Amino acid sequence: MAEETKNKTFEKSTHQQKWLVEQLMYNLKNDEVLWQQGWITRGAPESAITGKKYRGSNNFLLTIVAYKRGYRDNRWVTYNQMETHGWKFKTDAEGKSLGKGAGVPVEFYSLHDRKTKKAFEKSTLFGMNEEEQQEYMKENVFPIRRSYYVFNADLIDGIPELEKREIDPNERVARADRFLQMWSENEVPIIHGGSQAYYSLNKDEIHLPPMNDFLTLQDYYSTAFHETGHSTGHQSRLNRKLDNKFGTPEYAEEELRAEIASMFLGQEFGVSADTNAIRNNSAYVKAWIEKLEEDPSVLFKAIADANNIMKYIVAKEQEFNATKDVEHYAIVEDTDYYGNPVYKVYMTADYGQTRPALSFAFSSKEALLQEFGKMQELPFWKDKTFVEVSKDELDKISIEKAEKGETEEIQSEPSDVYVPPSEVVAKTTTKTNPSEMKNRGIETLTRTEDREVVEKASKTKRGEKFSQLYNGISVLGSEEKDEYSLMTRLAMFVNGDKEQLMRIFQSSKQFREGKGLEYYDKIAEKSLEFVAGVKDNAAKGLPIAKTPKTAFGKNGKV
């Protein structure tokens, strides 16, 4: 009967899900490690066209396949994308295509509306009460799954070479160390000592053997991420059931999700895991095999949970960093007058511009880093944390700084308008309380690209302030200023698409239906104009223009 149930569940699975279960079961039954992360310092699998990372089950499957087939490139592309760019499959010594049978299925989901016969828009629910909204969703909204085959860039001839990302491995380790220290100081104490690694639910503590007791540094980080993953299950965090007895299926399931989360975190932090990182405890492996044979959907649930663990931890890292004095820099390779390669280091400057941090260019990267290290030891810089980013990322950070300066100017502008005491009280009351609005938030966004904008904005240096605004908390002291600030922050990531900007803003708790779409449409236009001007000036190396003081009228209206 159990076998019959398993077969029915398996047959109902999608093609990708069947692939995933079969790959994992083969590895477990043949005593193979689930994945090898020596190559994973390049990061999670990503689209060769958009650069977007694959997440969840797509990430997990592509990672396993890349390991088994020995791919060294983390980029993937569909056949149609290959044709569009004029790329072709490489051939073997006999002239046979390397692409034959090499496609890997990936899946994406989106919500559609039977009534409108278009992609579902949250604005459709405006004006309905909660019961009406639930009824509309049940009767009209349904998910559509799209499946594609993707091919690894190692198989493709003509695709540009993988961009060199020369980030010092020591910096990757430093980032992991900083995170674990901040996690220990702010969330869960990490105690080194003894011979066992475990998370104590009762004491809310992580226990690890001393770092020197691990066979490799990679195994230490893999174990630390694994136990950190467990600690997110505490009721004050993601609230999973953790008091399961050793040897039970539920205990094995938690171990599986923590192990997958450890893999995802290794990708995120760029720290290689040991080739034997999977804890091949026979009790776990036996339980995993039995559980997957009984119900393959357990794997998909574990992957989804692991993805949530990874996102939670990364968001916490952003929150920790927001409280630190961080200086970002980018090392850029250029050429001198004679065409010889030289190296420069750039940092952010006033009004969000980027500028060389040192007056000279250097003929070698080593010489540059040596001189830059001396600068960091000067009294003004010695208490700051330096983080290397790409030049593109540094430019984005400069735009954020410009936007921050603009909102501060608006906040500090004196007003000659009389404000009744009742309004002052109202503003003071809403300053620390989130708007009481239902059916708002990132989970209400039905398009992947919209969710990605919110996630990107929340991961910036000032992501905490963005999250406060998005969740309806007053940061600048008035509704109008909060609305404008949030709209501008979102405008940085929508590439001038006002329709997308409005769609995402309406999912936030700053959006108030009573003000009407025309009101917010004007704010959106001004926000997009400001961001376009900032980007244009930054590209030309010009000072960042402030937003016109007419952005808000005397009565506080746009």
By DSSP (H or I, 4+ residues per run), the number of helices equals 18
The assembly state of the depicted protein chains is single chain
Helix percentage: 40-55%
Extract low-pLDDT stretches: 35-41, 277-283, 406-436, 544-558
Let me know the number of strands.
Answer: 14
Please, what is the average pLDDT?
Answer: 78
Strand content: 5-15%
The major beta sheet can be summarized as: 5 strands, mixed
Q: Strand sequence of the main sheet, in spatial order?
A: 1-2-6-4-5
User: What count of domains describes the coordinates?
Assistant: 4
What is the CA-CA span between the terminal residues? Answer: 67 Å
What is the 3D shape?
A: globular
Radius of gyration, Cα only, in angstroms?
26 Å
List keywords for this structure.
single chain, 558 residues, alpha+beta, five-stranded mixed beta sheet, globular
Describe this protein's structure:
It is a single chain. The protein has 558 residues and is α+β, with helices and mostly antiparallel strands. It folds into 4 domains: 33-157, no CATH class; 169-274 and 296-322, no CATH class; 327-389, no CATH class; 400-551, no CATH class. It is built from 18 helices and 14 strands. It has helices at 2-12, 15-29, 56-69, 79-85, 130-140, 169-186, 217-231, 249-269, 282-294, 297-322, 365-376, 391-412, 421-430, 448-458, 463-470, 479-491, 498-505, 517-540, and strands spanning 46-47, 75-78, 88-89, 104-113, 118-119, 141-152, 156-157, 190-192, 198-200, 205-208, 326-335, 341-348, 354-356, 385-388. The strands form 4 sheets. The protein has a 5-stranded mixed beta sheet with strand order 1-2-6-4-5. It has a 4-stranded mixed beta sheet with strand order 13-12-11-14, sandwiched between helices. A 3-stranded mixed beta sheet has the order 8-10-9. Strand 12 and strand 13 (354-356) form a beta hairpin. Helix 12 (391-412) packs antiparallel against helix 16 and helix 16 (479-491) crosses helix 18. The radius of gyration is 26 Å and the shape is globular. The relative contact order is 0.08. Residues 35-41, 277-283, 406-436 and 544-558 have low confidence and may be disordered.
